[in-house]
User: Fold this.
Amino acid sequence: MNYSDTSITASIPFLSLENVRKTYPGVVALDGFSMDVRPGEVIGLVGENGAGKSTLMKILGGVTTPDTGTITVDGTAHKGLSVEGSLGSGIAFVHQELNLFDNLDVAANIFFGREPLRAGPLKLVDRAKLREMVAPLLKRVGANFSPDTQVADLSLAQQQMVEIAKALSIKARLVILDEPTSSLPLAETDKLLDVIKALKADSISVIFISHRLHEIERVADRVVVLRDGMLAGTLGKRDINHDQMVKLMIGRMLKEREKASEAARAPGAVALAAKVIRTPAYPSRPVSLDVRRGEILGLAGLVGSGRTELARVFFGIDGSLGGTLELDGKPLVLGSAADAVAHGIFLVPEDRKLTGILLDLSIAQNISLPNLPAHARRSLVSASAETATAETQKKNLGIKAPSVQTRTGTLSGGNQQKVVLGKWLAMNPKVMILDEPTRGIDIGAKAEIYGLMRALADAGVAVLMISSDMEEVIGVSDRIAVMHEGQISGILDKDQFSQENVLLLAVGKQPK
Amino acid sequence: MSKKDLGLLILILVVGAIVAIINPRFLLPINLANTSNLIGLFGILSIGQAFVIITGGIELSVGSVVALLGTLFVDFIATRGMGWPVAFVLILVLGAIIGLAHGWLITRLKLQPFVVTLCGLLIYRGVARFYTADGTAGFAFGQNFPELEFLTAGRSYGVPNSFIALIVIAIIMWVVLHRSVFGRYLYAIGKNEEAAKYSGIRTGRIVMAAYVICGVLTALSAIYFAMYTRSISPASHGQFYELYAIAAAVLGGFSLRGGEGSLIGVVLGTVLLQELQNLVNLLGIPSSLNFAVMGGVILIGVLVDQQWGAFRARRLMIDAARKNIVGAAAE
Assistant:
C-alpha cells in the first residue's frame, strides 16, 4: 500500500489549481484556493453546504471562470476553462441529478450524438458497432446489464454506472462525482465505490464529493476540506477519519456560537404535531415532530435528507402515506394546500420563482392571492382593498419597489421573498413553515427576515425553519431538529447547540 | 382596452375600409347584418374556448358538440314535442355535463386536455351521426316557434339578436374574467399552476369550472347555430368550428401556454375572422381559398405581435442597462 502511495506522490499532477479566487456580487465564493490531483488519485472533497464546492465544480466544468489564479491541466496553464476545453482535456462530470434519457437504451445514452453510422446516404446508426463499443466500457465499470437495457429499467446505481461509462467513452482522465451516493440505498453505494476503485486502477483520477463521510473514509487517498470558500485543510491517507473531517469542516467558530445564543425560552403548547408521518420520499421512515407555539424550530440536515418533503406534507401538497397530523391537539387532515391555508398553516417554499410567487403578477396581486375572497365584494375583486393590504405589508416588511403595482418579477430576490412572506403575514398564521428562507438573499435582507421570524414567534406563531446554513440554524432557532436520510436523527436544545452536534446528527452519528 | 386590443381594432377598421372601397356592397345593411349574425354565433363559441385557453388548456371537441347538441335540440322540439324552453335548459345542462366530464378527466385523472378533447371530438360526432342514423335533423314544413326564432334568428332594430346575445354575454364574461375572484384565479393558474396551488388555490376545481363554462357557452351557440341553419346533417355541421374558436382566441392575443389574453381580444378576433370570410366572398376570391386566407392572416398577426414583443423587451433591457450605468456613475 505504501508503495502505491509514494508512486502517486512522485507523479506529475494531472490537474492543479493555484490561488483561485471567485467572487459573486456580495459573496466571496472561493478565496486563495489551491489543490492538485495526480493521476489515479481519489480525492474526497468535503465541506458544508455553501462552502464553495459548487463554485469549484463550475470552474472545473468551464461554466464559470475564476477572477484570479491559474488552473493547470496536463501541464498547460489556463486562466480559466471553457466547457469544451474542460471536456477536451478529459474532465468528466457525473452529477447528482443524472442527465440520462430514460426512454433510450444504455448504448444510445453513452454515445448520444456520437453514434457510429453506417455507410450510405441514410446515415443509419450502426447498432452492432455501437454495441461493440459500449460492451468494454460497461465491463470496466463492472456493470452486469446489457447495452440494450432501457435506462428506465435500471436502478439508480446502475444509472450512475452508465454516466461513468459515458465519462470513460470520452477518454476521461478525471471523473468528478458530485454527491453520487446521496440518493442511493446502502447496497447500491457499495457497487459505486467499487467502480471508483476500478477507475483508480486504470489510473484515472477521481474527485469524489460526498456528505457521507464514511464513504470518503473508504475510498479516498486524500481529503480536501473546504470551508467558507477557503481550503480548511488536507488530510493524507493515514489521517482520514470522521472526527478530523468534521473538525476541519466547522473550524474555529465552534465556541463563539454557543455563547451567542440566549437563554432558552419557555416552550409554548404544541401547535403542529406529526405522529409517525411517512413522506412519499422515504416511505419506510416514519417521522414524529412537534412544533410549539412561540418557538422557532430549526430543521437541519443535508440536502436530500427529506426536510422539504416533510414540509410538503405539512402544507398539504403531498399526502402522507401513514401516521397523523394534529393541530392544537385536534386531528388534522389535509387534502390540499388550500386546506392547510384554511387552518393557518403557511409555507414559504424553497423555490421562490417556481412556487413562491407569480412573477408576472404585481406585488398587490401576489399578496392578495391566498386570501382573495376577503379582498372582494360580491366576488368581484376590489382593487382598493388589495392595494391597501399590499401597502401595509410593503411598509411593514420594507419591500423596496416603486409601487405595489410593480411586477414581482422585476424585484430582487430579497424583496421577492418579502412578498412571499407578506402574503402570509396579511393573513393569520398559526404555523409558519419557511424552507431555506434566506437562500440567495443579501445579508441585509437576511437580518430583516430573521427579525420577522422572531416577531412571529413572539406573537405566538409556531415557526418551522428549514435551513442548510449552519450559522443560521444555530443563530435563529430555539430548538433544532436534525434529519438524516428521511428520519429525525435527533433534537437539540439550546444548551446542546453546536455546529459539531448538528453536523454529527446530519451524518447519522450521535452528538457529543 | 389594452394596446393589443386597440391594434386589433384598428386592423379590423383598416381591412373593413379597404374592402368597402373595393366593393361598396360590404356596407349594405343586409351584408352587415349577416356578418354580425355570424360574429354573434362564433363569438359565443370563442368566448367559451377562451376560458379554457386561459388556463393553458384546449377544447377541441366544440365543433362536434355543436353538431351533437344542435341535433338533439332540433330533435327534442321538432319530433319529440318538448317545449322549447325545457329543451333549451336541457341542452345547456348537457353542455355543462360534457364540460364537467372533460374537466374531471383533465384535473383528476391528469389526462392531457388535447387528448381528452380530441377523443371528445371523435365521440360526439359519431354519436350525433348515429342518433339521426346519418340522416338530417330538421323541422317539418310549417313548424314554427315564433319566440325562439325571434330570440335566435330574429332582429331588433335591424340588429341580429344573436349579435346582441354576444354583446350581453361578452359583458358578463368580461366582468367574470377581468374583475372577479374566479377570473384572477384563472389567470394565476394559467401563468403558473404550481405557484397558484402553493398560494392555497384549489386549482383543480377552478380548471374544471373553466371547462364547464366552455361547455355551457358551446351548448348555447349550438342552439343558435341550429336555429340559424334550421336543418342539421351531423356529418358536417359544426366541422372545424373548434379551429375558428381557437383562431379567434389566438388572434385576440391569447397564449396557448395560458395566462394571457383579454375578453375584448377574443371578441375582436372573431370579428376579424368573419370579416376575412366576408372579404373572400365580396372580393371574388375563390371560396376554396377561404382557409388559406384565414391561416395566412393569423400567421402574420401572431408573427408581428411576437416580433413586436421581442423588440420591446430588447428596448426595455437596453434602457435598464443604461439606467444602471448612469446610477453607478452617480455613486
Observations:
- The CA atoms of residues 155 and 161 of chain B lie 5 Å apart.
